[in-house]
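User: My instructor asked us to take a sequence, write out its structure as tokens, and then describe one feature of it. I'm not sure where to start. Here is the sequence I was given:
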Amino acid sequence: MSEPVSVVGLGKLGLPLACVFATKLETIGVDVNPDVVSAVNAGQAPWSEPRLGDLLAVHGGKSLRATLEHRQAIEGTDLTFVLVATPSNPDGGFSNRVLLEALTSLGQALRASQKPSHLFVVSSTVMPGTIERELVPAIEGASGRKAGEGFDVCYDPDFVALGETVKGFFNPELVIIGEASQATGERVARVHHAVCENTPHIARMSIASAEVAKVALNAYITLKISFANHLANVCERVPGADVDAITQAVGTDSRISRKYFTGGMAFGGTCFPRDTFAFKKLSAAVGLESPLMDATETINDLQNAQLFDAVHACRTGSGAVGVAGVAFRRDTPVITGSPAVELVEKLLADRVRVIVFDPLATELARRRFGSAIEYAESMEACLAQSEVVAVTHRSREFKHAIESYAADHPVTIVDCWRLLDPARVAPPMRVRPLGRWTRD
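Assistant: Let's start with the prediction itself. The structure tokens for your sequence are:
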């Protein structure tokens, strides 16, 4: 059994991390939101995320105890993971305001403690150089101690995706630990070994290397996504070509792999766009241009524009356009950076009636668009009211509903991920798959 741990920041990533820890370790969770703290201690999920509710029902208020007090993390554990929001700045870097506030509060609690040391594990995404340049001095100032003497710091960035956070923390392919010393890195590695259901590759390196690796990995994935999207656009214009046949074959080459090599919509969400931008900022900071990242952003913008053009080309009159899936990906309510949201905005600017269906993201979509759009209660209702429906999520539920629906008027389905079997879609509905050549 590894040592007890604390997690500061019970947000979309921090709470799943704390729940995973709590399956094997005594865990203290700290957050500034009293509603989240109350929900955790009552064993209830504050938002929708696969498996989160099940874990909280078992461990919330028991092996996972939540509090508003940072000092309880210091008093109750010797190892604290800090996973709070570091939103993007206009210049492409990350705001460390919330992170600095959390570490300052923890440092103040450590100043009042008699314990000899405490290990702070930063898991929030930061720009390279941030830990040594900003975070360590902040802890030293608040605690009155010196790094390496009265406290230690490691960097352990997350690589999970919303909609799969619990799965990602239980079964990571890669864990990167930026360590100030071999002993501190070993303590963090032991925590992962204690809770992981698999045997991940744990890469231990300097803190600076880990900071670069975090933004570099996501930036590289966006390169891969953008190449696949460009390939999909090529296939639409080559008679007989199908991007899935190509990426599935080429992706078996171990030098490439099939992950994130599909071709479909632009990338979005909370990590990919901002980490791409951050990698550009890092390159500029060391005196380098980043033409690959420039091209990635250009292709991503073009992909959003081409989705709108594809939907527009399918319209034959003034009928409504349905958007099935407004979150940036399935299994999450988060609409930040969603290509579907950009599609809705373009349609509204073109004075098109828009109907959205997304059982998880309706509330956030309503906050964003209000009465400017309509909200369907089911896929069937969305189909019944629309002339064109863009299917933006790779959802089995969406697939079943569309392939089982008997339309009483023509509906064109813009199938962004080639989810549907056109032979199973009954006329007068028709399917327009992106990334695959079709006869008009």
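For the description part of your assignment, you could build on this observation: The chain has a mean pLDDT of 96. Try explaining in your own words what that tells you about the chain.
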